[in-house]
Every structure is written in structure tokens, then in C-alpha cells.
Write a structure and sequence with these properties.
The protein is an alpha/beta fold. Among the domains are: about 200 residues, 3-Layer(aba) Sandwich (Rossmann fold), CATH 3.40.50; about 140 residues, no CATH class; about 70 residues, no CATH class; about 150 residues, no CATH class. About 50% of the residues lie in helices and about 15% in strands. About 5% of the residues have low confidence.
């Protein structure tokens, strides 16, 4: 425990430090080369970015991220710690400093030792963790005191996406250093990590302040034009049979469950159903379970009582609107009974045990989770399918034919699979795994020239015997030994203890000069840090890894090659299609998500540069893989077209814009939908009027002639008007409803966006002058709306679309919701509930600001706090209303060059 005196002396120490002369990094460091235009643009806004003592920069491989980081250190001009994921990258920082900034190496004190911090100390995340654990006894206060006393005022995190769980704690503790600036640099934020890990990442690094984009680098000729292609394969017949059997078993299981009388009776005894009014609080805490109970009973043909339906906002007549008992709801229901609260149902084992036993037999239930979809199971089997070996062979034949002697192809896989090194051609059918050696054997035994092939991994290197003399020219005499693979012309190369790094460099040279044209390796060795600009074709046969690793691997291929200034890179991805899934299946779905991590130029149509798989403009089905492969092969054969499309797209834009892309599920343009609804309304109206004029009106006139004579003209007009209304109303109602609905979707999106934008400006989430900001709403394709800001900073753009996405997506569990749900809206089916973005919902005053702007742009609504009984009840109703809507929308964040 600190004493009064220790605190006093520490304050004196810091006061003395404050009197010391200014740090001198600015004076002694100077970048000796000209800045690239995008680097100069970023540095021009550096002081603005650093105002909040946080700076988070995304910059792809090849953008000069390290020299930018060193320039930031120079401008901050304070004692600095730089943390990197590996020793190699750590050393690169020191090398760049000495090669590009220092005139005299003695001017700035640099080092690697955390125990003795220098002016700039380069270290690794592992070293910091070890220092914290061993030297500081895992004490946060000791760690803070040590670096506080050392005068550390600037911390740089390089490639922060590498952080492992145990590394977080000391880094978060260092954030408590007074007046310390945090700079984070990365090529790809870990968007596909778990929510907790992603939250930790952004809490540590802060929101993204700036991003150096691929189009800027291609424009500056720091990256080459490139294109992504996909080659599709199908599972083996045996695997297809397994998938079909699995699907059939699940279908029969769910069908049997809805007819299981004993289980139905058990569900009806659940307190949520049996004692609904008495346990409303618990229901509102677990709304998904309550919904699952009712959805199951409805699927089992049980009549659900009015009071239970009212909690979901339904009438008895609307029981037909309850969603079907999909696999998602089966999982929610049975997760409760068989996993989460299994111990509470011990007395019901006779009912539940047969269900559990069947699920375990099918293979969809473990100790913690029920998964009927089978995505993980299918993804693993499809992603590792050996049928991908034929895809690699087809790609290699195509690229060898097109590129000839200039081919420089790298194939990256996850595992080596050494057990297949000695197989012969007649044993090729025994290969049952995907990996480096299976790929190598499949290529060499199926017509690819052996002299072109090489294998480079951390523990196994294979070269053709014809290259050995050339290899030895670039190595010391005793650097390697080798042994021949039986019955082949290939050698297993073995470096001595000190020559492994030299050997990798020598093999890289053989590849660059064309002695090896096809190099097969592991992503762990070649995927990150390995620099070989000669690569012009990359095949990603990797199924393990993340968005981060995908982007890093692509980064190997898209670097410019000084020896080949016209280089265009082809990047091939592999996907095994699930023939039982209309959307292509789990392997392709994961590949689609990974495409979100990088941008490229569209394959066809008007050239557009954007991230995501939409730019491929393909629809993957269960039976069109061959057509798609032919399509991609034809496109991949014309590299000049790729180059011209990049040039054309770059000329059409200036910056990457962050936008929210809304995709409505019926894929019809809103103008078309409005016109259809309008035409239908008009058709019904004209038909009704014609019928009234020729048939109904004469009949009414004759029938009510006595009324006309006896009651007078006014009464007659009232009777006729009533008859017209009764006749017209039923058939006009539905068409009018459609016209009103489709007349407002895109307009409502614009109004919501305006409410979000004005709230952000009011609450100082946006500092750019409002007069400089333009809200853009576009409909680039049928059924798609894009929304983005022009004139705001990149950080403000990202925040805007993030908040807007929260509002538009289905309600989860917000603190506040907005309800537009009066009687007329209920009748027309227009009742809507919207999330108040979390950042506006932390204080009621901020939520009211959003509410006021909402009413100005979208009309009357009500604001509800959901952390009380009334709010929970409305929240459950709002969630269920979203489930029964006929038209749904998906929203995703995207970036596009505009």
C-alpha cells in the first residue's frame, strides 16, 4: 500500500521530469525518401487524428506501414515502446529506422530490452507478457510504476490482430499510463473473431481513424492489378450420400418431435406456458424460449389461447402468422431442455432421454450445444475435401498454358501430410486428405512438369534434382544435405542448424528466376512475412485461418515486381459445393464472409472497386459449379482486361467510402414495386367504377327511387356513397396497402439516416461542419439500397453506418426502442419497432435527442425504456413482429471506391 510520502516523492519526481528539456526525436529523425501521395495525405491529418491520444490505422501489406509508424513516433516525439508479433517484424522496425530515418545511428538510443527502455524500444507481445508475469509478478501496479518511472509516453501496437488472450491484460494496464498516446497499426482487423475478442481489440486500439486502401496503392503503382477467382468442386459420392442421409435424419427427427404427444404435454407444463401471467418477468428475460415454446406448439397443431398470443402482439386470428418450426427454433427449444436446464428435468427423463439419445446418434448434440444445421460438421468435411486436388490441377494447367515460362505460382495449404511422401502413382487413390504433399503428388503424377515443382515448409523441403547445382551456388558449401525420394527425381533438402534462413532465401531466388515455377508451401511459413514480389498466381488451398490470414496470404501476390512492371496477379480460392444446399453450402458461405476482408474490382459490367463477394456477380447453386468454373477460367485467361478494369475503376473514384448496403429479399426495384402496386390499385379501382356505373348504380337507383322521392336528394347521395364504399373497400384495401408500403421503404431509409446523422452532429459524434456533409441514398441494383456520407472523415463514416445498421436490423436487446404502432398502423400491417443505437441509449437525454429528430423526419412515435416490465413486454412483441414480416432486409457494411 502506498504511503503519503511515496506518493509525495513520486509527484516530485514527475515534476522534475516535466522541467527536463524536450525530447529530440524530431530533430534527429528524418525520412530520407519522398512520401507517397496517400502517405502524405494521411500525415497531413495526423494532428487531427491524434487529438484523442488514440490512432488506429489500417494499411494493407506493401503500403509502407512501418515507415509511417516511425514517422508517427518522430512526430509524437516521446519515449516509445513498439510491440510486434514476431522477432522478424521487430527487427524490421529497427532496420527501417536505421535505413530510412537515421543519419547517425548514435543520435537516437534504440534497443530491444524492456528491462532497460531506450528512447525507442522494439519488443514483442510475448516479451511484454513474460516481463509482466516474471519480472513484475503479474502486478498491474508494478508494471505501471516501472514504465511510468521509465518515462514511457507513446505505445505503438503493430499487427495488433495477432493478440492472444493472455496478452491483453498488460496492454490494457499500459493504457492507464497518464498522457500516453496509443497507436495501433494493422493490415486487417480481426472481424471474424468472437464478439468478446473483437470488443477487446477495439477497446484497446480504439475506433479506426484512417485506412490506406488498396485502390490508392494500385493507383500509385505500389500494388499490382489483381483479381480473385473461385474454382468449385463437388464432394465425393460417398460424402454426398452422408450429407443426404444427415439431412433426412434431421427432417424425420423434427417431424416426429411435433407429433411426440409426451413431449407436447411436457412443453405445455412449462411455467412460461402454464403460468404465463405469473412469470411475465422471467418470460421477458428469455423471450426466445417463450417464442420457441409457442412456435413448437403451433407446429404440433395445438390451439394457443388468446392471452398467450397477446404477449407476442397477436390475435387468435393471427395464429397463422406464427413462424414455422425451423431448425433455429428447434435448437432454442431443445437447448433449454437437454443442455442449459437439463438438471431441472430429472423427473422427465423418460420423455427427454429418447430425444437426447436420437440427437447424439445423429451427431448434432454434445455436452454444451445442439446444432441441427451441421455447419461446422459440413464445413470441416467440405473444406478438406480431396476433390479440391482436381481444382488445383485444373487451375495449374490453365495458368501454365496462359503464362508459359513467366508463371510464378504459389499454392498455400494448412498441413504438410508427410505420410504421403513415398507414395507412387498407382497409390494416388489412397490420398484422403488435403495438404502440401497430397497437392505435390497430385500435380506431379498428373502431367505437371516435375522440374517446375518445389515444396517449401518449415520442416520439409523438396526440390527437383535438376535444381540442386543452382541452389548450391547461393549457399555455403556445407549448408545443406539431401536424400532422394525413392523411385523419383526429387530430393528432400536438409539444412544445417544455422542455414535454414539462408536456404529459404536461396529457394526464393530459384523461384524468382524461374528454376522453380510452382512452389507449394504452408501458410504458416509463406503466408505472412515471406516477401517474394515475383508471385503472379496464388492458389489458396487453406481451410484453417481467419479473415486476417486470408488477407495476409493475398498480400504475398499483389505486390509489384520491379522485374515485371506489367505484372497482374490471379488469386484463386477453392470451394466445395454442398449439393443439398441452394446457396452453395457451408464451405462457400465461409468463403463469402472472407471476401468481406478485402476489396477488388468487379469481374463484369461497369468496373467498380468494392469489398465483399457481390463484385463477383455470381449466383451459386447446387448444380451450376461447372458453368461457374468455365466462366472463371475464361475471365482468368485475360489478364490485360483485369488491368484495364482497374484503371477505369480508379479513374471513376477518389476515395473508399464506407456505406451500408441494404438488400431486400425479393430483389425487385422499388420503382417497379411501386408501379406494380399502383397499377394493381388503379386496375381494381377502374374495374369497380365501371361495374358500379354499368350495373350497381342503375340497380341502386331503381331500388332506392322511393327513397329519393320520399327522403330527398341528400339522403340518396349518402346511401349511394355508402354502397360505393362497401363495394370498393375490400378489393382496394390490399392493393392500396401494397402501394403505400412500397411507396415508403426507400423514403423511410433516407428519413432514418437523416435522424441518425442529425443526432450524431448534435451529440458531437461528428465534428466535420454539417455544411460539408452530404447524405447519399442510391439504388444501384434491384432491391438494393446503399446509404453513405460524403464529406465526413473515415471514422465518422464508419460510426454513422454502424449506428444506422443498429437501427435497421431486427431488434435484439436494446435499452430503448422506438415504436410506430398506433391502431391504423396495426390494421395496415405497418407497425414498426426500431432500436435506439446503443451509443445514444446510455443516457435518457441522448435517447430523447434521437427520438426528437426521429419524430421530425418520420412522424409520430413513442420511446420506450426496455429495462422495466412494460418495456420488456413491448420488446418481446417487437421481436416477434419482425419474425412475421413478409419482406425482410439484410444489412451489411461495405466499402466502395467513389
Amino acid at each position: 500500500m502506498e504511503t503519503y510520502y511515496s506518493v509525495f516523492y513520486r509527484q516530485i519526481y514527475h515534476y522534475i521530469l516535466s522541467l527536463a528539456p524536450d525530447f529530440t526525436l524530431t530533430e534527429h529523425l528524418k525520412f530520407i525518401f519522398p512520401w507517397r501521395s496517400y502517405q502524405a495525405k494521411f500525415l497531413k491529418e495526423f494532428n487531427k487524428h491524434i487529438e484523442d491520444e488514440h490512432l488506429h490505422v489500417i494499411a494493407p501489406p506493401g503500403s509502407g506501414k512501418t515507415v509511417l509508424g516511425l514517422e508517427m513516433i518522430r512526430r509524437v516525439n516521446k519515449k516509445t515502446l513498439v510491440f510486434t508479433p514476431t522477432l522478424t517484424i521487430r527487427n524490421q522496425w529497427n532496420d527501417r529506422l536505421r535505413d530510412c530515418f537515421l543519419k547517425n545511428s548514435k543520435d537516437v538510443n534504440c534497443g530491444y530490452d524492456l528491462k532497460k527502455p531506450a528512447d525507442i524500444t522494439f519488443s514483442t507481445y510475448q516479451s511484454l507478457h513474460a516481463f509482466f508475469k516474471n519480472e513484475m509478478d503479474s502486478s498491474s501496479e508494478k508494471l505501471l510504476d516501472f514504465f511510468r518511472n521509465a518515462g514511457i509516453k507513446n505505445i505503438v501496437l503493430d499487427e495488433a490482430h495477432h493478440l492472444k488472450n493472455e496478452w491483453w491484460l498488460p496492454l490494457f494496464e499500459l493504457k492507464r499510463l497518464e498522457n500516453c498516446i496509443y497507436i495501433a497499426l494493422t493490415a486487417t482487423p480481426p472481424y471474424d473473431s468472437s464478439p468478446r475478442e473483437l470488443r477487446n481489440y477495439f477497446e484497446l486500439c480504439g475506433a479506426v481513424d484512417a485506412e490506406i486502401t488498396v485502390p490508392e496503392l494500385v493507383k500509385e503503382q505500389n500494388l499490382c492489378p489483381h483479381q480473385d477467382y473461385i474454382h468449385f468442386s463437388k464432394p465425393s459420392k460417398e460424402r454426398i450420400k452422408d450429407i443426404l442421409d444427415f439431412r433426412e435424419q434431421i427432417y424425420h427427427f423434427v417431424t416426429a418431435l411435433t407429433g411426440n404427444i409426451k413431449f407436447i404435454e411436457l412443453v405445455k407444463t412449462h411455467p412460461f406456458y402454464k403460468e404465463t401471467e405469473a412469470v411475465l418477468t422471467q418470460i421477458y428475460e428469455a423471450p426466445k424460449l417463450y417464442s420457441a415454446l409457442l412456435i413448437f406448439l403451433n407446429a404440433s397443431k395445438e390451439l394457443i389461447t388468446r392471452e398467450k398470443l397477446e404477449i407476442l402482439g397477436l390475435t387468435e386470428e393471427e395464429q397463422k402468422h406464427i413462424p414455422s418450426f425451423s431448425y433455429e427454433w428447434v435448437e432454442v427449444l431443445l437447448q433449454h431442455y437437454l443442455v442449459d436446464f437439463k438438471d431441472a428435468y430429472g423427473e422427465d427423463a423418460a420423455v427427454l432421454y429418447p430425444i437426447e439419445k436420437e440427437l447424439r446418434r445423429i451427431g448434432v448434440l454434445d455436452q454444451k450445444r445442439l446444432n441441427l444445421i451441421g455447419d461446422q460438421r459440413f464445413y470441416k468435411s467440405l473444406s478438406q475435401s480431396v476433390t479440391k486436388l482436381n481444382s488445383i490441377l485444373e487451375i495449374t494447367n490453365l495458368e501454365a498454358k496462359n503464362m508459359g515460362d513467366s508463371l510464378r505460382q504459389v499454392i498455400l495449404s494448412d498441413y504438410i501430410r508427410k505420410e504421403f511422401v513415398d507414395i507412387q502413382q498407382n497409390q494416388l487413390h489412397t490420398i484422403n486428405k488435403l495438404g502440401v504433399i497430397p497437392i505435390f503428388q497430385h500435380l506431379r503424377f498428373n502431367g505437371i512438369k516435375e522440374q517446375c515443382l518445389g515444396v517449401l515448409t518449415g520442416s520439409l523441403i523438396i526440390l527437383h534434382s535438376s535444381t540442386i547445382d543452382e541452389l548450391r551456388k547461393n549457399l555455403p558449401a556445407d549448408a545443406i544435405s539431401w536424400e532422394q525420394i525413392p523411385a523419383s527425381s526429387f530430393l528432400i533438402i536438409k539444412p544445417n542448424a544455422s542455414s535454414k534462413t539462408l536456404l529459404i532465401g536461396a529457394i526464393t531466388h530459384l523461384f524468382e528466376t524461374g528454376f522453380i515455377k510452382i512452389l507449394i508451401g504452408t501458410k504458416s511459413l509463406l503466408g505472412e512475412g515471406w516477401d517474394c514480389p515475383a508471385i503472379n498466381t496464388l492458389v489458396l488451398a487453406s481451410f484453417v485461418g481467419s479473415f486476417v490470414m486470408s488477407n495476409q496470404m493475398r498480400g504475398r501476390a499483389i505486390r509489384i515486381s520491379p522485374e515485371h512492371p506489367d505484372k497482374v496477379a490471379n488469386i484463386w480460392h477453392l470451394a466445395c459445393v454442398d449439393p443439398t444446399a441452394d446457396s452453395g453450402g457451408a464451405d462457400y458461405n465461409l468463403l463469402q464472409r472472407r471476401f468481406d476482408a478485402f476489396c477488388g474490382v468487379s469481374l463484369t459490367g461497369v468496373p467498380v472497386i468494392e469489398n465483399g463477394s457481390d463484385r463477383l456477380n455470381i449466383k451459386v447453386g447446387s448444380n451450376n459449379s461447372e458453368d461457374l468454373n468455365l466462366h472463371f477460367r475464361n475471365l482468368a485467361s485475360n489478364r490485360n482486361l483485369v488491368k484495364s478494369r482497374w484503371s477505369e475503376a480508379i479513374e471513376e473514384g477518389a476515395v473508399m467510402v464506407n456505406e451500408l448496403k441494404l438488400n431486400f429479399d425479393d430483389n425487385q426495384p422499388f420503382k417497379v414495386k411501386r408501379k406494380i402496386a399502383y397499377d394493381t390499385t388503379l386496375k381494381y379501382a377502374l374495374a369497380e367504377i365501371g361495374l358500379i356505373l354499368t350495373v350497381v348504380l342503375p340497380e341502386i337507383f331503381i331500388s332506392y327511387l322511393r327513397v329519393l322521392i320520399s327522403k330527398g336528394i341528400i339522403h340518396f347521395i349518402v346511401v349511394v356513397a355508402a354502397a360505393l364504399a362497401v363495394t370498393l373497400m375490400p378489393k382496394l384495401f390490399k392493393a392500396s396497402k401494397l402501394y403505400l408500403y412500397f411507396g415508403r421503404i426507400d423514403k423511410d431509409i433516407e428519413a432514418i439516416a437523416k435522424a441518425v446523422l442529425r443526432t450524431m452532429i448534435n451529440l458531437k459524434h461528428i465534428h466535420t461542419p454539417p455544411k460539408n456533409i452530404v447524405l447519399e441514398i442510391e439504388e444501384p441494383h434491384a432491391g438494393v439500397i446503399n446509404c453513405y456520407l460524403k464529406g465526413a472523415t473515415a471514422k465518422e463514416e464508419k460510426l454513422f453506418i454502424s449506428y444506422l445498421q443498429e437501427v435497421i436490423l431486427p431488434i435484439e436487446n436494446p435499452r430503448y426502442i422506438l415504436a410506430q404502432a398506433n391502431w391504423l398502423r396495426e390494421q395496415l400491417g405497418f407497425s414498426s419497432y426500431f432500436t435506439v443505437p446503443d451509443v445514444f441509449a446510455q443516457r435518457k437525454e441522448d435517447a430523447l435527442v434521437f427520438y426528437n429528430f426521429w419524430t421530425q423526419h418520420l412522424g409520430e412515435c413513442s420511446l420506450y425504456f426496455t429495462r422495466n416490465l412494460r418495456g420488456r413486454k413491448l420488446l418481446l412483441k417487437a421481436r416477434f413482429q419482425a419474425l412475421k414480416k413478409d419482406t425482410h432486409v439484410s444489412a451489411k457494411q461495405a466499402t466502395i471506391w467513389k
